[in-house]
Amino acid sequence: MAPPPQTYRFCIIVPKPLTKTIKTALEQRGKLDKSAKIYHIGTESDLGNYLVQPEFTLSQDSCIVPTTYTIALLSARDAYTILDAVASVLLRGLYPEDPTTIHLALDLKSRTTLPQPHSNSLLRHTIHHWLSSLPTSILSTLPPIPTLLALHPWTYTLYPPLLLLPPNTFTQPPWPALLAGALAPHIHTLYTHICASLSVTHIALNAPIPLHTPMSLHALHASTNLTPNHLRSPTALTPLHGPFGPREPPSPSAFHRALWVSTTQHGIHQTWAPLHTMFSRGNIAEKARILRLPALRAERLGCTPQACSAVDLYAGIGYFAFCYAGKGVGRVLCWEVNPWSVEGLRRGVGRNHGGWGVRIVVGEDGEAGEGGDDGGERVLVFQEDNQLAGARVEGMRSRIPPVRHVNCGFLPSSAPSWLVAVRVLDPVLGGWVHAHENIAVGDIESRKADIVARFDALANPDVANPQHVVCCEHLERVKSYAPGVIHCVLDIHIAPVQSQRP
């Protein structure tokens, strides 16, 4: 069963001089939470226990004012998709002089568990209607409909035109036996009703990404010569309804036959083929963090974002690369070995801000897609091993803005890419490496120190004459990866060479 929903309190972030004004306005509405304190925030780290509107940047001393507005969520991260919409309602008229100066935040510490409500979801309603319409001869052999419906929470995720059901759907007895027996002739009708009710055309059963690729599917990616599922292919996903295309090697014709789905997070569109490429919803919080990253502001960069480049060494379908492009970074260079992900990235660029432009480079000199030798496309994708990135970037330095950010988004550890990450950063200006790592809860501080030491050694190979100061500016606990293990991102700052000179 799904975990029970929890309530979270909304707070309002206001510039410090406006605190009294907003407090008074909330009191007049009867929405000031007088049981909680007003907190001062001076740095981004003070917001570690809050989810904030994606466009918020801390440019001055501010305060967090608690309200009695609450929301019930299964996961706090679900709020990212609705925070702006909720803010447009809750903050309306609160400070009409300049409404852009106040922002909504969700207090993660304020959560309280609610009783599990009875589901009234559209999916549950559709299944109830389908069961009720079965012939009496079948209904009389079934357990009561309320009993059958109570066995599952009937949650789902929509990635138009796909409805994705969780792995435990229809798994509680007697559902498996019924679907294989008395209800088997009527399953197509069920799926047809579901598609009509939820405005989709395809249905699939989700499953965890397997650690190893079955040999029958391993042959599809024979060029990698790997049995482990390094490409994170969703080989266990089960299509239930609608044409998904065959599981086949990547090619232009295969791309044409495949089902492509999409989603929008923080105003950024992403596209992928669910039979061939994974999509991680859990990255939504890290995407939001990148979009408000202090190190992407002109005062930290020493230039506008347009005057620098970013590198994503594990680009996938553009999870984080699109965030850098969306923030206005001049060039975003991507490395990705899975052709299905590269095709999803290419299609995703086409759905985002038409001016980005994309070029795909395959092989030593070969290329595919739009653009010429250097057409100035914002997104440049190399379909190859990221270990080749160092030489690639070195040969391009005179033609691209300096690389100031490098994303290493691979789990359980991105360590194999760290040397390359340091190498592609601008050798004089330095920059930031965002290293993703799974870390045991009790080891976070010690691993943080170890990782900083590792990057220091990579950035300063001449121990007698170090050129860069290396530190971890921030460690973000993104999400739980497994019991006792946290997916963390370490923002490693490698300072400019000149900061070391007398």
User: In which range does the helix fraction lie?
Assistant: 25-40%
* Largest beta-sheet details: 9 strands, mixed
How many beta-strand elements?
20
- What are the low-pLDDT stretches, counting only 5+ consecutive residues below 50? 113-120, 216-226, 366-373
Mean pLDDT: 85
- The coarse silhouette is globular
User: Strand order of the main beta sheet, please?
Assistant: 15-14-16-13-12-17-18-20-19
Strand content: 15-25%
Number of DSSP helical runs: 16
Radius of gyration: 25 Å
Q: Tags for this entry?
A:
about 500 residues; alpha/beta; 9-stranded mixed beta sheet; 5-stranded antiparallel beta sheet
Topology:
Blueprint: E1 6-15, H1 19-29, E2 39-41, E3 50-52, E4 62-73, H2 83-90, E5 103-113, H3 122-132, H4 136-139, H5 145-149, E6 157-159, E7 162-165, H6 175-180, H7 187-198, E8 202-205, H8 215-218, E9 238-241, H9 252-257, E10 261-265, E11 268-272, H10 284-291, H11 298-301, E12 309-312, H12 321-326, E13 331-335, H13 339-351, E14 358-362, E15 367-368, E16 379-383, H14 389-396, E17 403-408, H15 418-424, E18 431-440, H16 444-459, E19 470-482, E20 485-494
Parallel strand pairs: 7-8, 12-13, 12-17, 13-16, 14-16, 17-18
Antiparallel strand pairs: 1-4, 1-5, 2-4, 3-5, 6-7, 8-9, 10-11, 14-15, 18-20, 19-20
